[in-house]
Amino acid sequence: MINKFEIEGKWSNATKNDWIHGKLTFDPETRISISIFGSFTEDPIPFRHHKIDLVVGKTPMGVFTLVDLDYRSFKSSRNFGTITTYNVTFIFKGIQVQSKDDLIFREASFSTFNLEPWFNPPNMKIEHNFEDWSFKIEGRSTSMDDIILNGDITCNIYHDASLKPENDSNRHIVEQFTELNLSYVSKENWLRIWEDIKCFVTFISFCTNEQSYPTKFELKDNAFIEKIGSSTRNIPVEVYFPTTFFHSGSIHNNIMDHIIPYSIVEENFDVVLNEWFGLYKTFHIPINLINSRLKSKRHFTENRFLDAAHAVEVFHRLESDMNKFSIEYFEKLKNAAMDAFPEPNNDRDWMEQLLRYANEPNLRQRLKDLINRYELDFLFEDNKAKKNFINMAINTRNYFTHYDSSIKPLKASGPELIYTTRLLSAILYACITAKLSIDRSKSRRIIQEMMERL
Q1: What positions does the domain Apea-like HEPN occupy (predicted)?
Q2: pTM, whole model, 2 decimals?
Q3: Which of 101, 184, 185, 219 shows the smallest number of beta carbons within 10 Å?
Q4: Distance CA 372, CA 425 (A)
């Protein structure tokens, strides 16, 4: 799923049987495209029918189904006729279907970047016998107990190794890997399966302090089978699509760099993973915002600060029903203000929009509430340091968001901005880990150590 490729073959609109020569190009960081001699539509001007649901293909790499194509460009010449290029959203390698409704599966297997280092399974070694030019792997593959997720998914985590030749010699190296297999009670649309995988990817990013992304994504179902001799097997359907999770600059973090090591959650991993799936459904916006700092090492400090401040505000808004005033009192204030504009006009609409969020707490109240409710005073030396941090966070957010030149001397910059951003991130991490079944003392230690890694 992360390796670039180009493949030539014959392609056809799934609703027709008109095969056209063309080339499919996949790049995980940019886009998928297909260029063909001619067009997938009968219209001589292809951009007038720029959306195509499904295209199927036959290539030396096997059969393909391309999903959600969008016209990109075309060019014509006397020698080659018309060449049309389309952007492709999703690639399914191994099957051909006639409808998106056919893209339902019962099983999925996947692996993600930094997954194996996080689990840190026992090492496997290779033993060479140079007399008969043979080798064998010492150690054994391991499979964890099945985990039931969301009541309808059986998750199996499997550690194994493969042999890879080392240059042109007879020596081989062992490549260890960890895979997750998901089995669903009933067939599911592949997009629902991808949402479940995405949830796990964000969990690994959150724990390892490095952006994770799928390195393998395969789907299986007994509707797609192939014969091998006298037996049959389910076809492994490989899925390819560009994802914002992928970044070629991501690195394999070692255990010392992980914010939440596997050893912290090992005893009740099934409980923690189920809790995370529930959390992500509600808090995916702040989680993705706080993880966004991992996607690019070149983000300006100002961007990281604004993402952290935004994440904290959204988290509090999703979790709390806190208001400035009681609902009854605020309704009286709102009605009194609206009475000043009895006739429907632009001024009344302006006032209505102004009052829409007027009863919501401001950033100062949100920060104080989170610090008090989650008992986060341990992040500060004393009350003065806590007060200074809250003032700095508010003034900096207001300056960057609303640009009030009068508070420029009060905003954070340089090391202060880095420290303020780290504290905002630590607050969100503390709030989220508090919702997971992690020992309280371990959770506090995690947050304190995290301040040095963010």
Answers
A1: 306-440
A2: 0.87
A3: 101
A4: 16
Determine the Cα–Cα distance for residues 136 and 172; give it in Å rounded to an integer. 10
Burial class (CB in 10 A: 0-12, 13-18, 19+), 75: exposed
pLDDT at position 133 is 60
Q: How many other C-beta atoms can be found within 10 angstroms of the C-beta atom of residue 387?
A: 12
Q: How far apart are CA 241 and CA 239, in angstroms?
A: 7
CA 454 to chain centre: 19
90-113 pLDDT, tens digit per residue, is 999 999 999 999 999 999 999 999
pLDDT tens-digit map of 120-149: 887 666 676 666 666 666 666 667 789 999
* Whether 244 contacts 295, CB under 8 Å: yes
First to last CA, the chain: 29
Of the candidates 301, 310, 311, which has an alpha carbon nearest to the alpha carbon of residue 415? 301
The domains located in the chain, with CATH, are 5-99 (2.40.10), 103-253 (no CATH), 284-322+361-450 (no CATH)
The residue among 71, 75, 76, 74 whose CA lies nearest residue 86 is 71
Tokens 């429907």 belong to 344
Return all residues near 234 (Cβ < 8 A) that are at least 6 apart.
107, 220, 221, 222, 224, 225
Distance (Å, whole) CA 384 – CA 98: 66
Q: What is the DSSP string of 35-54?
A: EEES-SSSSSSGGGG-EEEE
